[in-house]
Amino acid sequence: QLQVVESGGGLVQPGESLRLSCAVSGFTLDDYAIGWFRQAPGKEREGVSCISSSGSATNFIDSVKGRFTIFNDHAKNTVYLQMNSLTPEDTAVYYCGASQWYCSRQTNYDYWGQGTQVTVSS
Prior knowledge:
The protein has strands at residues 3-7, 10-12, 18-25, 33-39, 46-51, 58-60, 68-73, 78-83, 92-99, 109-112, 116-120.
């Protein structure tokens, strides 16, 4: 069964950190790039970060550069999004998706998770 499952969301205060996990099953990270997306209330889903299947290439939107990192663990078939110095503007449901194309548009993603809520509030 092909599956993508996000976890690690929660409620944190501004300035704190969270690490999101994207665990895939039924396929391997050897064949798929992973992208992290987020959707805030009333806004469209936007791409946040992506990582190539090998892990050698990564990309981030400007608003998270220097605060977020992305890395994968092929042994665990999991991709992580480390989020530091969180701000209320990072509040959203975070999704990960798997695509055969690195940093591709959303329509090219084959598999999606159900999302995990991240809330940054004092």
